[in-house]
Amino acid sequence: MKHLILSSLAASALFFVACGDQSEAPAESPDAPETTATAEVEAAVITGGRPLTTEIPPELIEGTPQPVKVPNLEQAPNSAPVMMVPEGTTLLSAGKPVTGSDDFPIIGELEYITDGDKEAGEGYFVEVMDGLQWVQIDLEASADLSAIWIWHYHSQKRAYHDVIVQISNDPEFSEGVTTLFNNDYDNSAELGRGSNQPYVDSRFGKLIDAKSTNAQYIRLYSNGNTANDMNHYIEVEVYGIAK
Known about the structure:
- There is one protein chain.
- By secondary structure, this protein is α+β, with helices and mostly antiparallel strands.
- It folds into two domains: about 1-50, no CATH class; about 85-240, Sandwich (Jelly Rolls), CATH 2.60.120.
- About 10% of the residues lie in helices and about 30% in strands.
- The strands form three sheets. Strands 3, 4, 6, 7, 8, 9 and 11 form a seven-stranded antiparallel beta sheet that branches. Strands 1-2 form a two-stranded antiparallel sheet.
- The longest helix is centred in the N-terminal third of the chain and has 17 residues, at about 1-20.
- About 35% of the residues are buried.
């Protein structure tokens, strides 16, 4: 009986995951084991978790493609990523204040990063100056973070350099800093050599596990991209459980 109940709940949760992006029915990766999603959902049912979903923006590819020459590159996915998060997880970053190392963006405003708009094209992204730059989201209260979902720029295939995501309860990031993601493979940002892969941006974004780490501030670094030297953000979503 218990097995039948879990199977029914898992099937319902899988249906929920599949319906998360109504714009298309994403194809399954041929390399992924068929039992992986089922196992994750059953584990989530047992532990009280749920699959994280969000609105995926429509496809819009513009401009002339540029070669993406980065070692150990992770290609863009064909469907939205799936991550299990604890029950009670909500979007915490909507409308929250954003600051940055570049106070005067070249295009757009820093507030675009948490305004909820993920579409490509002008009017939806912010461009900050070249070189190593960071943007920082203040959740205005500490929270146990579940995931961080990032869209840099998806109207052209490109990879951003030195993508580093750190969190802390110190707004100056001088103490209590946890690094959740770092693909700076040559330590050019001088924040430590990273072990994560560089990746091609897409409309599905980059989903990062925050591992229930407690923090109020999220700081995101980048250092130009394979198409030009500038740094861009369309949206950053921070999910967690408010304290």
